[in-house]
Amino acid sequence: MSLNWSAKDHKNMNQPAATGQKRSRNDAGNKATVVLGAQWGDEGKGKVVDLLATDADVVCRCQGGNNAGHTVVVDGKEYDFHLLPSGIINSKSISLIGNGVVIHLPGLFEEGDKNEKKGLKGWEKRLIVSDRAHIVFDFHQVVDGLQETERQAQEGKNIGTTKKGIGPAYSSKASRTGLRVCDLLGDFKDFSMKFKNLVHQFQSMYPALTVDEYAERLRPMVRDGVYYMYEALHGSPKKILVEGANAALLDIDFGTYPFVTSSNCTVGGACTGLGIPPLNIGDVFGVSKAYTTRVGIGSHVGLFFSHYILDVLDEIKVGVAYKLNGKRIPHFPANMDVLHKVEVEYETFPGWKTDTSAARKWNDLPAKAQNYIRFIENHIGVPIKWVGVGKSRECMIQMF
């Protein structure tokens, strides 16, 4: 595409006169609501996104790849999403895969087709893919698996990666050799040359690597994602929802490194992965489980094995502080060797030993469950918006 644009054209545009006044936060445009995982993933983000997406105009993915997994239950049907935003279920909203996401194209279309058989109609017409998003190739996945095998052989331990090629794809991006969606849809000879150069870097270590191409099916979905978000933020009033993948303790900077994913899963990832200014970030919802689990390998302080159903426990222990060498520490240790040595200080609460799955209002919950929730709310200093008691959106108790 050619843009014949000059400074003279810019000068002649009808633009509002500069006022010399700082634009207030209230004048910054539409706000994006962000849903993030607050633990190690599998907290139920998909259900919260599904709840908020029912009246959203735009639902976005900002980071990660098909290493994420969100399950949404609607009318008894389970839809599984890995790359597609969960909000694509809403036929009235647009779903955007942002520039911060790394996309395995065969996986994207396999996921869409699988959910279409379950009843997800017209998803391709509602999906926008940022032209700046990087591509995960099949050889990235092969490399991911081989690297895990090598780590196990050399160090006796691996990271617990999903082997979806996410780390190697972000590595290609960081080393500035990665290929983006815009490259695939541009001059194919140029793309082929770049691809051969990229593959050559890996073939010396991992030969016989191949690639799948989905250019023509992808082409109608591709747009400049940054400009699309600019229009969404500064155009007519819109409800914009950002669906985070993975979780805070898997964040490349703030998680239990090196047992983390390869992207920023905290709120900053919404800004960099979509081109949203911090000024346009509105409500941020962190989703937590009533009990903590993690997938894969890595430190899990306070781990214990049980049926993991709070309704049946005699008592519930809540970790409220860490101790190192007998002294409380005010932070979450960055060093995994140190983290392994901490002791957890607990508050103990009596279990309610009552099925809560039918509760739909706060007063439907047992008093002991209410006390448990209020304690967590007061201890972390963050208001709790919803309490989930089941898989579907109807199983959410709204607190305020």
From TrEMBL:
UniProt-annotated stretches for the region Disordered: 1-29
Family: Belongs to the adenylosuccinate synthetase family.
Protein name per UniProt: Adenylosuccinate synthetase
Residues binding IMP, per UniProt: 42-45, 67-70, 162, 176, 246, 261
Cofactors that this protein relies on: Mg(2+)
Function field: Plays an important role in the de novo pathway of purine nucleotide biosynthesis. Plays an important role in the de novo pathway and in the salvage pathway of purine nucleotide biosynthesis. Catalyzes the first commited step in the biosynthesis of AMP from IMP.
UniProt-annotated location(s): Cytoplasm
Pathway(s): Purine metabolism; AMP biosynthesis via de novo pathway; AMP from IMP: step 1/2
Reactions catalysed according to its record: IMP + L-aspartate + GTP = N(6)-(1,2-dicarboxyethyl)-AMP + GDP + phosphate + 2 H(+)
Cofactor note text: Binds 1 Mg(2+) ion per subunit.
Enzyme superclass (EC): ligase
Signal peptide: none
